[in-house]
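Supplementary notes for students who missed Thursday's class. We covered one full example, reproduced here. Read the sequence, then the structure, then the short commentary at the end.
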Amino acid sequence: MKKHKKSKELMMLPLLLVVILMCIGGHFILQPSYQDSALIEYSLAALPFAMFAVVIIAIKMAIKADKED
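Structure (token representation):
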């Protein structure tokens, strides 16, 4: 079993925080007072794709860190 370095795992912490902020922001703009804007509707529709992009970046970072070990 390999031992992982903490620094490589801590590199993914900002990505986690970005996704958490996206989730909170998505719930915030679901409020009824923001429902009339088309920009809000488009940003809510794009939110899952943005989260998926962050996941792809995290997977690439994990693969790169695994190859370096």
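Commentary. The chain has three helices and no strands. The chain has a mean pLDDT of 86. If anything here is unclear, bring it to office hours.
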